[in-house]
Structure formats: C-alpha cells, structure tokens
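TICKET #2291
ISSUE: user wants both folds in one file
ATTACHMENT 1:
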Amino acid sequence: MASASASHSDARFGLDRRVTLLGPLPLDCGAALAPVQIAYETYGSLNADKSNAVLICHALTGDQYVASTHPTTGKPGWWQRLVGPGKPVDPARDFIICANVIGSCMGSSGPATVNPATGEPWGMDFPVLSIADMVRAQALLLDYLGIETLAAVIGGSMGGMQALSWPVLYPDRVRAALVIASTARHSAQNIAFHEVGRQAIMADPRWRKGAYYADGDVPASGLAVARMAAHITYLSEAGLTEKFGRRLQDKTGQDCANQTGGSSFGFDADFQIQSYLRHQGISFVDRFDANSYLYITRAMDYYDLALPYDGVLARAFMGTKTRFCLISFDTDWLYPTAESRRIVHALNAAGAEVSFVELSSPFGHDAFLLECPEMNRIVDGFLRAGAST
C-alpha cells in the first residue's frame, strides 16, 4: 500500500510519522522515560465518532511498516497479506495504527536514540522495559491522536502479548482483541533461547557493553548468530524438512542430492539449511540494532500476565467487556496451541466473550506472517462482527 489517507488533512495521520511526547512514562522497572519518542504509521481515515480505530502490534523484530514499503530493505509491509485495500484489515473501513515499540530501533525511544541528559545515544543506560511499558507508550500515542477507544487491537507473537495486555491495562479502551500465535507468559524454553541470543551478542568483541554507536562498528557477528538461533524457533521440523531436508548446496552445478557430492569436509555451509540461516542472520544485521534485541527479548522474558494476580490468569480478565479471538497453529512449538488454550480457559473463567481456533499449517510459528486464507477469513469475520454490533 503506497499511501495513506489523513483525516481532515491532520498532520498527525499518515505514513512515516514521528512524535515526541513529554511524558514522563512510568516504567515497571521503577524508572520513568521522558521524553517519549514514538514512530508510527496510520492508514485510512478516522470516522466522525472515532469508533473505527484498529491498533496493530508488531512482533520482536517488526516495526511500524505493517503495510508500506520498508525504508531500509525496500520490501513490502510485514503484514501486507492481512492489511490493505480489500484485506481483512481494510483502510477503507478501518483507521489503522501501527507504532514501533519503545526499546526498538525504527524511530521510537530505545538504546540507539539520544539520552537528553547526555546528548549521546542511551546504549545500555536505557531503562529495562516490559511489554506493559510498550502498551502504555501506545496509549500515550492514542491520546495524542485523540483516540479514546479502539475498535480492535491485533497482534501476533510479541504483538499478541501486547494485544492481550491492552484489555487488562485499559479495559475501557478496547472493544475487541485478536491474539495470534502468542502466549500469556514466556516459558523456560522461550527464555533459554533468548538467553543464547543475548549471550551471542554480548560475547561479540564489538559489542563493547553496548557502546558501539560512535564509530558504527556494530556487533554484527553476535547479532547474526542471535537471529539464526531465534529463526529456528519460528519454523517447524516438517517445514524445514520439506524446504531443505539434508540437501547440499550446489557449488559445482552438479546434482548434490547425495551425501558426499558437494561436501567440503570442512565447515563451509555445505547444507542448504546452513546457507539459509546464515543469510537470515546477515540480512537481519542491516535493519536491526543489537542493543534493541537485548532489551526487547528481555521484556518478553519478563512477560507473565498472571503474575500481578497471584498467578491466576483469569483474575487479569475479570469483568472485561472486550471480545476476544485467539488463533494458534498446530506446528507452532514456540507458542504452542496449549498456550492459547490456557488463555481461553482463563477468559472463560472470567466470563469473557471469546472464540478460538487452531489452524493447520506446515510453517510453524511464522505461519501468522505467511499466506493463510483461513486466518484471513477468521480475522475478517471477527472484525465485521464487531462493526455490526
């Protein structure tokens, strides 16, 4: 989608917007962030009674370019299969907002932005964040945009954590929440994979305790390895086997289906899966900041929606008037269907209106970002049901 309509030519609305809000924004770590910079995009027009606003929350390495061309990679928006003209989230009907989370590196306050106290990038002096802090920053943005109530909040993966947190933190500001391939808490396995990635970054000699902005000599090797490790969790074994199997790289132009024909008997990327992961790691470095990766993965690890409620998730949703829809995928082992069912059971216990479906896909956790007509139909039906009530 190449353009976005502004409501009444309001400069607050449109593509590639940035705003600096005075704050302060109280954080769960006890600190306060001020000012608060937020980079965001909007698509469509806000209607007269401001009742058609839909907030889309992005995942760990996502950004505000949900349906527009990414300025660094030149690729289409990361959820252009779901968001756009004629799509389930349609700017002809919905006023769509997507903001870069605080802690990230695409324009919102984070380690790479300037600390007003020093005039230098924050680096590791940036305060440690939580998912709730990200949501509170989004609420500040909505206040700035003049939007009191969201028709819906939608997110997958870490975006789903934000979408699930919105009705808990702001029960009167969200009419519907759509949570896809997500969870209400990070498991020990999730935390373990993130720790591997963080240690890879911090072990890179170029990390220098996060102080690498001055010369631009970034910890690219560590960040690439972190991305490689995480990317494995986004895929399924069946999907990897189907796409790569044990096939070797074709380095000679000959058939390399056998086990030795293309082997280097060394440590080159002999297998196609090795080459694929290395490519994922190298390309990621061009668009993401290593310190942001540390901060956001840490926020995800701290995430446990039931913790403030004595570990009883249902209490988090007690009395909610928000409609919920949860979608999981049968091959997602990062946030498996059991995690979605746990949320659904808690919502049922709280008396909330909730629907749930598990979809079949060979693509693992990444299925929510790929072509999935079934998911699109569910999202479309859920949003239309809300619009008709």
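ATTACHMENT 2:
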Amino acid sequence: MSDFEVIETSAGGRIKAWVKGVPLEAQARTQLENVAGLPFIHSHLAVMPDVHYGRGATVGSVIPTRGAIIPAAVGVDIGCGMMAIRTSLTAKDLPDSLSAIRSEIERKVPVGNGRGGNHKEAPARAATALKASGLADRLDVILKKHRRIQRTAFAKQLGTLGGGNHFIELCLDEADRVWVMLHSGSRGTGNILGTYFIQEAREALEKRVLSYHVPDKDLAFFVEGEALFDDYTEAVSWAQDYARLNREVMMDRVLFSLREHFPAFALEKEAVNCHHNYVEREHHFGADVWVTRKGAVRAGKDELGIIPGSMGAKSFIVRGKGHADSFCSCSHGAGRAMSRGEAKRRFSVEDHLAATEGVECRKDKGVIDETPMAYKDIDSVMAAQTDLVEVVHTLKQVVCVKG
C-alpha cells in the first residue's frame, strides 16, 4: 500500500499526492490537474501535505518539467527558504521575560516591506558579504539586457526580514537547547525579477502556436533554447543566491543581537539553509529535468531540511529519505488552511492571544492573518509524510519576530 494518493487527470496527467489526513481544497485540486496535464511534465506531479491554492500552481507542489519552466510556479519570492542553527544556550539561560530580546532583534534586523524594511545604512558585514559574492555585477548583467526591470535598493535589503509569513524565531528543542530559526527570501529585487518574467512568459504564450490548451495564463512558460529561457534561469539563479546570502547575513545579525544579552555562547554543528521556492536542474526517472519546488523542500537521502509550523506551533528539523516518487521532496511548512482575508474575518485578537500563549511575539490585529488557526495542523502534515522524512529535532518557539 502506497503512502500517497494517485490522481489521474482528464488531460492524461498523473498526480501523486501525500495528502492522507489533510484537506485538499477543490480550487487546489483543479490547479493540480491543470499543471499535471501539461505535455512537458516529466513522469508526474508530486504534491506535499501542506498543499493549498496559489498563483497558477498550488503551493506545496513539486513540478518536474522537460525543456520548459513556468515562472509563476517558481513565484515572485524566489529562493524563499529557511535557516536554522543550534546554539550552546539552554532554556535555563533565558530570562523570564523575552521582550527585551525580541526588541533587540527587531532593532538589528529591519522587518516589514517598503523603506521601513530596509537598513538605513547596510551593516559593514553585509556590505563585505555582498562585495565578496559578486551578486552586484551579476545583477548588472541582467539589468543591461532587460532595461525595463526596476532597480532596487537590494544592498540595503541584504540581511532584512520582509513581511507576510517571514519570521525570526528562538526555539527550544526536545533537550531544551536554544535554536535560532528564520524564514525569508530574495526580498524586493527577487519579487521584481519574478513579476517581470511572469509577464514576459504571458506575452510569449500569446504568440505561441500550440497543439494543446494552456488552461491558465499563469501557467505560461519559457522553452529551453529561447533567449528568454536563458535570461530567466540567470535571473532565478541570482535571486536564489541572494536569498541564501540574505539568510546568512540575517542570521549573523540575530546572533549579534543575542550576544548583547548573553555571555559567550557557541554555535553547534547542526545548521541548515534550504530554499523552498526555487527551480533547479536534477536527475529523476532516467532524465535530467527542471524541478520547481513551489513550497517544498528538497529531501534527498540524509539531507537535512526545515519544516516550520505556524506562530505558536511546533517546527521540525528533518532528514530526508530520498523518496523517488516525491522527487526527493517534503513539505515546506504547515500550509495555509484559509486565505489571509478569511483569517482576518474569522479570528479576533483574543483568539490570537490564546493561540500564542507562552510565545513572545506580536499580538495585535496586524498579524491575525498569520495566527496559528489560519494554517493546517502541523502534526497531521507531518503524519502524512513519514515516508519522505524522519524528524531529527522538534522545536517549540519562545520568541517570534514578524514583519
């Protein structure tokens, strides 16, 4: 008996979905069938238990493609992902009130979108890291080819959190050891690059003569061998590298904040930095293909990954089992159970206070759309993918910084 559900679509595509015990909304199922039916899908579409409705394709999808990439499936938060590191601190080292620590992190790491989410002046370490990375020169090459792409203050955004579901947390594991965990991506520049190439793909689709129907304009694609395909993969590679560096610089800033409050502490060897919105060339089922993980983490054999819960819920450091049918993937979190608008209509600040009891975090109406009840039950999500990953550490947040 398999651990996944096989869904055959009317267009001839096949879906393998790890959704036992978790809801699969009708809108999301329609999107899955739309994607699976495209002729350049390789073997099948893999669906993670945190699956939910997204732009063009569902969040929680693993999309293998032959000779084509769908920019909207990669999304606009290109390279978004997680980083976590274990410290030598324990729960006994933490003060009774964690509000000063949260405030210190918020001072060192700008949060939110717009100018308020930028460094006024990039920290010296961030500037040094950016110079060493070569990212500025690589971006110049992209912008010279595509002059309609807006230039942004990407240097001032390096080491910043952003808004929405991005967060910085202090967590305790099963042995009461303190972890630092954070979630962010390629910030404003990644968003602009993604938005630009999604529109370019739409315009290219209108000019294509195809022998098949593309059911959603957000499934517009670039074909390998086209100039725009090469330009897009160049831009995606830049954004993914920027996102990874952004998390590294941000982690440095958070650790710097902690050293303001604690005596010398060490960093343990267990550290993870993984994307969950990205595309990469991989080998599966006898072919080299492009694998888009839209809200999914690579979980190759013995690879470490991070599956965060919502505010107030558990999170997990996991080790991949290299399951071939999932294209060596697992979920990227709990997955939304409802839209942000629905969460704001349904829940009150009092509901949020109860759900985040014991966590030092924002408890105002501005984060109601991120309240734990807006997400699927993380235990059910983990139970649906026991053949994909094993749990190495279970983390419970005690501080959560939101944009």
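RESOLUTION: both attachments delivered.
EXTRA DETAIL ON ATTACHMENT 2: The chain is about 30% helix and 25% strand.
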